[in-house]
Design brief:
heterodimer, A: 71 residues, mainly alpha, 434 Repressor (Amino-terminal Domain), 5 helices, B: 200 residues, two-stranded antiparallel ribbon, 67% helix, 9% strand
Chain lengths: 71, 200
């Protein structure tokens, strides 16, 4: 997948753990972990909105496009 | 018109279906086993013992194209040896019971997966495809079994100008096509389910 999720980087910047984010956003740690490791195919706008709100960031801070990884 | 979905009622129907198919499947396989046992026993019984008197039969009822005809067969009398008719009928019965028992087994698997709230599972897709192939095979094989039994019957009553004819079981063939289409729909449903499962 050419889209890379940079959730780990943003979490490290905010000094927040995955479980704290899960609690704030209302998504299970399992799903957030899948998102962090890039094991998901899609993300809902509502999920993205909730994560951006919790981490006080922009969608572009979480997602990155890498042309070399295009499948 | 808006349709309503009542999950509670749906699950009750699914559970009833699961239980019903389980019972039916066991009965059919048991019936097939008994028919095979009967065949085995009949093989060791001398043909002269297994006889049937045709004297009491005055009419032969034939049903075709929604018309029931009662043919007078007064000219048939005497005792006939029914050993091979009985054996062929029991073998054909076993084949029919195994065939429909297996269809019911596939249906039971479908109900079980739906009860687990996983209707669009890979197993269900495979079950439906296998069920359709099984029906295609049955549409060809089952009339052959009926033909063998019919042939034995004609040999016994010895009616002039009688013959057995073979034709593919068209209803089963059409049902097989419908189940194949349903399997394709379920395969697409599985693809959509995967998409939803991999979305956060």
């Amino acid at each position: 997948m050419a889209i890379i999720v940079r959730l780990d980087r943003v979490l490290a910047d905010r000094k927040m753990s995955l479980s704290q984010l899960a609690e704030k956003v209302g998504i299970s740690i399992v799903n957030l972990s899948k998102l962090k490791t890039g094991k998901v195919k899609a993300i809902r706008f509502s999920t993205l909105e909730a994560i951006c709100e919790a981490l006080n960031c922009q969608p572009a801070d979480l997602l990155e496009y890498n042309q070399q990884r295009t499948s | 018109m808006e349709t309503t979905y009542n999950p509670k009622r749906f699950m009750i129907v699914v559970r009833i279906g699961k239980l019903f198919t389980m019972g039916l499947m066991v009965l059919m396989y048991l019936g097939a086993a008994l028919a095979l046992l009967g065949t085995g026993i009949a093989l060791f019984i001398p043909a002269s013992v297994l006889t049937f008197s045709l004297d009491s039969i005055n009419t032969l009822r034939v049903e075709t194209m929604n018309v029931r005809i009662a043919l007078p067969i007064d000219f048939i009398d005497g005792n006939v040896m029914v050993k091979w008719l009985a054996i062929s009928a029991m073998l054909a019965g076993a084949v029919y019971l195994v065939f429909f028992g297996t269809i019911i087994r596939f249906m039971h698997g479908l109900f079980a997966d739906v009860a687990k709230e996983k209707p669009f599972s890979e197993a269900n897709v495979m079950r439906l495809f296998n069920m359709s192939y099984w029906m295609f095979a049955g549409a060809v094989i089952l009339p052959l079994c009926a033909m063998v039994v019919g042939g034995q019957f004609i040999r016994l009553v010895d009616v002039a100008e009688s013959s057995v004819v073979y034709s593919v079981h068209d209803n089963l063939l059409l049902t097989g096509v419908l189940v194949w289409v349903l399997a394709s729909v379920f395969r697409y449903g599985k693809h959509l389910q995967d998409e939803v499962d991999q979305t956060v």
